[in-house]
Design goal:
Layout: E1 2-4, E2 7-8, E3 13-19, H1 23-36, E4 42-48, H2 55-63, E5 69-73, H3 80-89, E6 95-98, H4 110-118, E7 124-128, H5 141-153, E8 170-173, H6 174-180, H7 191-198, E9 205-209, H8 224-238, H9 245-271, H10 276-299, H11 308-337, H12 342-364
Parallel strand pairs: 3-4, 3-6, 4-5, 7-9
Antiparallel strand pairs: 1-2, 6-8, 7-8
Helix pairs in contact: 1-2, 8-9, 9-10, 10-11, 11-12
Amino acid sequence: MREAVGRVTGPELSIIVPTLNERDNVVELIGRLERHLPGRDWEVIFVDDDSPDETAEVVLARARIDSRVRCIHRIGRRGLSSACIEGMLASSASYLAVIDADLQHDERLLPRMLQLLREERADLVIGSRYLDGREITNWDASRVTLSRLATRLSRFLVPAGLTDPMSGFFMLRREVLDASVRQLSSIGFKILLDLLASSPRTLRFVELPYQFRARHTGESKLDSVAAWEYGVLLLDKLTGQIVPARFIGFSIVGGAGLMAHFCVLTVLFRSLQWSFIEAQSIATAAAMTFNFALNNALTYRDMRLRGWKWLKGLLTFAMVCSIGALSNIGVASYLYQARFGWIPCAVAGVVVGAVFNYAMTGAFTWRSPRKA
């Protein structure tokens, strides 16, 4: 849209679409946006996490013939929340919407969302799957149960009266993002929850009901790791981001590794009657391998090591953790000799060892310039 000769205004609305293996939905989604946003100044920004099915190539092909279509092709990083944030930050629009590429959300609500924000009746307009007694009819019982549990857990962080804090379909004012962006955790796939919990003030919101559809094509990206990331997000927000979210995950895995160590030790030493030195050595190696594998799959999922890099990572992880164990023992022994109680000495050793392991494995095992 031209404002004056030689001067072109930017879009009023940017629609952010995070994608991973959604090539068959791209053209259909763009067509629906065209039909339901006539006469409005909008753009759609697809943020693709280097999809193996070449989703980015499909988007780029469309962008060459339609200036309203943009593509951010991310290499070496992954995650729905971080993709949404990156897409919103790449926009200059006054209003920002987030919608999935799988066509489960009702794009017909977008004009109404925009109108409510223009009229300053809300800071945030949310598409709700549950308002007015609606239910999701195309989910199995286990997924419905998990969704309800996640919603209950989120009540510690979201405003009262919000029926669908887990919604992935919403529109907000630009200033809402600007006020919250430096406090966002960018973890997992619940960007709305992150925004609500990170805002320095209580946001005015309006919910609009819609019927959640079945996926158009492709497969759902939700898996057991999504539940892990959601839990870490909740902990990160509930602790006020005092410690890095990734460190929280690293520590939880460390606790699980300690239990694995004692399980192996008990079997070898008590049941199979191995010598304590042999059993302890095998249990230590097993726990280190367990911790590395779990951290690689969960804590550092976005930097996951594969193939030979997995083996190299295991070696560096074991080396770092061995030094961390010595640090643990050294600090605990020093404090014990200084006549502190044995429990605080042990705790201090564990904390020092955990911080050392987290810092060093981040530097040598999972190298990344990104902030954890």
